[in-house]
Amino acid sequence: MHALVGGLLSQAGGGSFATGALAAGANEALVTTLSKAVNNNPGLLLVASQLVGIAAASATGGMYKRARISQKARGHTTI
After folding, report:
1. Which long-range contacts (CB under 8 A, 24 or more apart) does 21-25 make?
2. What gap in Å lies between CA 31 and CA 79, rounded to an integer?
3. Are 76 and 9 spatial neighbours (Cβ–Cβ below 8 Å)?
4. CA quadruple 57, 60, 66, 72: dihedral positive or negative?
5. Whole-angstrom Cα distance, residue 79 to residue 58?
6. Which pLDDT score is estimated for 41?
């Protein structure tokens, strides 16, 4: 579900559906591991989520701006 929403948000913002879907999907797949890695610190989790988004955007040739999709998604989701 996160991948679909991430893709739609990215596309609505003028970006690539694939980039947004990959960023949000990767973040969702890794969120439990990321949360443990940052000792459940919400601020650090947002930063880690953005880094995942940047990596996903790079993998698809997407723009940095689209990488923020995963950070935004993480800000509106509870663990």
Report:
1. 22/56, 22/57, 22/59, 22/60, 22/62, 23/52, 23/53, 23/56, 23/57, 23/62, 23/66, 23/67, 23/69, 23/70, 24/53, 24/69, 24/70, 24/73
2. 8
3. no
4. negative
5. 26
6. 95
CA distances to 34, 62, 70, 77 from 42, rounded to whole Å, are 11, 26, 14, 11
Tens digits of residue pLDDT in 42-73: 999 988 988 888 888 788 776 655 555 555 66
The gap between the terminal CA atoms of the chain, to the nearest Å, is 15
Q: Give the span between the Cα atoms of 48 and 15, in whole angstroms.
A: 22
As a whole number, the mean pLDDT across the chain is: 81
Supply the Cα-derived Rg of the chain in whole angstroms: 11
